[in-house]
Write a structure and sequence with these properties.
single chain; about 120 residues; mainly alpha; elongated; DUF2516 family protein; transmembrane; transmembrane helix; membrane
Length: about 120
């Protein structure tokens, strides 16, 4: 009974790690190539290969090195999500609706600047 519960826990962890890898891969695929250069990160191709391998390793359980490769893929996914993705969003002017509050480019720190 204990081993069955442990197996279920490992399956859930594997599913979460796979979800993170797929999310990171899809997000890396939809970002523009020039944003990677502007953010001074590795190339888009580098991240697609690394994150694609992370997805494949999670889908195909390799005996022996499987857990180590899964851990490497998890680290790559986390690095992309917490470091590269925010830098790409900042360079591309992304985020939720661009500027906070939906203001225009003529807004100053205390409200609209009309030039008067």
């Amino acid at each position: 009974m204990l081993m069955e519960g442990f197996g279920t826990l490992l399956w859930l962890i594997t599913l979460v790690v796979l979800g993170l890898a797929v999310f990171a891969f899809v997000d890396a695929a939809i970002r523009r190539e020039d944003a990677y250069r502007a953010a001074d990160k590795q190339t888009k191709q580098f991240w697609l290969i690394l994150l694609g391998l992370a997805v494949v390793v999670n889908l195909v359980q390799i005996p022996g090195l499987g857990m180590l490769l899964m851990l490497v893929g998890l680290i790559a996914s986390i690095v992309y999500i917490v470091d590269v993705r925010p830098a790409l969003k900042q360079v591309a002017g992304g985020g939720r609706g661009g500027r906070r509050g939906g203001g225009s480019s003529s807004d100053g720190p205390y409200g609209p600047f009309n030039g008067r």
